[in-house]
Structures are given as C-alpha cells and as structure tokens.
Write a structure and sequence with these properties.
Blueprint (H helix, E strand, L loop, with lengths): L5 H8 L10 H15 L7 H10 L8 H10 L3 E5 L2 E4 L1 H11 L20 H5 L5 H12 L3 H20 L8 H6 L15 H21 L5 H4 L4 H20 L3
Antiparallel strand pairs: 1-2
Length: about 250
C-alpha cells in the first residue's frame, strides 16, 4: 500500500475535533476511510490499522482484528476475503459530507500548469467547506475552473445574505454593510480590543475584495483561468471565508 505518514494522518484527522476521544471502533472506521479514499489503497487489513495507530503514537487496542470483524458484521466494512476489507460506499459518503473531505480523484495527480504540478498529497485531502465542494467540485474536475470559482463565490454571497437577513444589496455592498466597522450585523470575532477590531476589519476587506475582484464579470484573469493549481487556491480561499462567515456571531 502507499506509505502512511504521520503528517498525512494528522492533516486527515484535523477536522475531527473528537477523534482522540472516540472509541477504537470509530477510529478504525476513520482510518479505513483514510486508507481507502485518501491513500487510494484497494484493500484494508490489520497491518494498515496497526500502521495508523503507530503513526499517531496511539496505543493499539487489544483486539483490532476483532474490531474489524465486528465492523464487517455491521456492514460498515465489506469483507472481500478473510481479513481483507473495503469500507462501504454509504459510510464513505457520510464521512465525506460530515467533514467536508474533497478527494480530488481526477485529474489531480496528472495536472500540470505554468506554475508547476499540483501537490498530489495535498490535493487528495484538501478540505473545503462542504457547500463550496458541492457547488464547485464537478466543475473543477471537468476543467471549468472559472465557473467553479464563480459558483463558490455565489455560495459565499448566499451565506452572508442568509445569516444576516440582508437580501436587498448586491456586489460589494452586502459584505460592507453586514460586516460594517461601526455597526456590524455579523461579527467575524467578538470583542472590543484593537486586535478584535483589526481582525473584523481585515475580513471585511477580504470579503469586499472577493466581490470586487473575483466575482467581477469584467475580470479577464478570472474569465480566462486555465491553471488548476490557481483554481484550487481560489477555492481554498473561498472555503476559509465561508467557514469564518458561518462561525460569525450576530
């Protein structure tokens, strides 16, 4: 199987805030997804589980083999032959939706651009907000990079309008109004210290910049985008903004 590394695993479990508190059964399910979907290994077996636990310096459960067998009985793992498993498609889909994993399964490992190759390890588990993924993933995989980004911007705009209740403004106005310096409807971060004010202002400018520079239909650099690396970077940028808007407080 492809090598399992400590950094790979840590990046994978980073969205799972309760991973280390989970029972071994849940941990084995997570490891199974990592092995099958992220590392693209065709089979899962006992040695894979042992490697995952060892790479995270976690104590190995007493009966990992028994856990895998129980998961097979529960149809979470599908036993292809004795001791050799695959994670069920239903569970894969549930994990992907819950944590927002976007396995860029095609054409990630073969992408070339003027700025170099997309890093294969990173792109295989680039974690985007689920709404950005749902809106943009198929367009990206089909090479429609500009449209993928535009759809991501529309998701961000809808989130701002929906959470704030402001529906009658367009362009940069929703971001400027909703995250106003003097009377914000939504606060990216609460507090009155200068660092809180600066952070709110910084994100207001970033959000305004999205609608001025990225959504702008006159932006030739966006209309003519053919670089998948740059497209992924735009989507990641939109994803973190969407996450911060989602976490904002009234």
């Amino acid at each position: 199987m492809p090598d399992i590394t400590r950094n790979d695993l840590r990046a994978f479990i980073s969205p799972m805030s309760d991973f280390y508190q989970n029972d071994p059964k849940s941990q084995c399910v997570a490891f199974s997804y990592f092995i099958q979907e992220i590392k693209q290994d065709p089979v899962i077996d006992l040695s894979d589980m042992i490697s995952c636990y060892a790479n995270l310096d976690l104590p190995l459960p007493d009966d990992v083999s028994g856990i895998l067998s129980k998961l097979a009985v529960d149809n979470i793992l599908l036993e292809r032959e004795p001791g050799i498993y695959r994670l069920s498609a239903i569970v894969c889909d549930k994990i992907q939706k819950e944590y927002g994993y976007v396995p860029i399964d095609s054409p990630s490992s073969d992408i070339d651009s003027s700025s170099g190759n997309v890093n294969e390890d990173l792109s295989k588990f680039l974690i985007l907000h689920r709404k950005i993924s749902d809106a943009s993933r198929k367009l990206f995989l089909n090479g429609h990079y500009s449209q993928a980004i535009f759809e991501g911007v529309k998701v961000l705009e809808l989130e701002i309008k929906s959470k704030s209740g402001v529906q009658d403004k367009i362009g940069v106005d929703p971001a400027n109004h909703v995250f106003s310096e003097t009377n914000p409807i939504l606060k990216i971060v609460e507090g009155t210290n200068i660092e809180h004010v600066d952070e709110r202002e910084g994100f207001r400018f970033l959000l305004m910049g999205v609608f001025r520079g990225i959504k702008n239909p006159q932006s030739h650099s966006m209309q003519e985008l053919t670089d998948p690396t740059k497209a992924l970077e735009y989507l990641a940028f939109l994803s973190i903004l969407l996450k911060r808007v989602h976490e904002s407080k009234k």
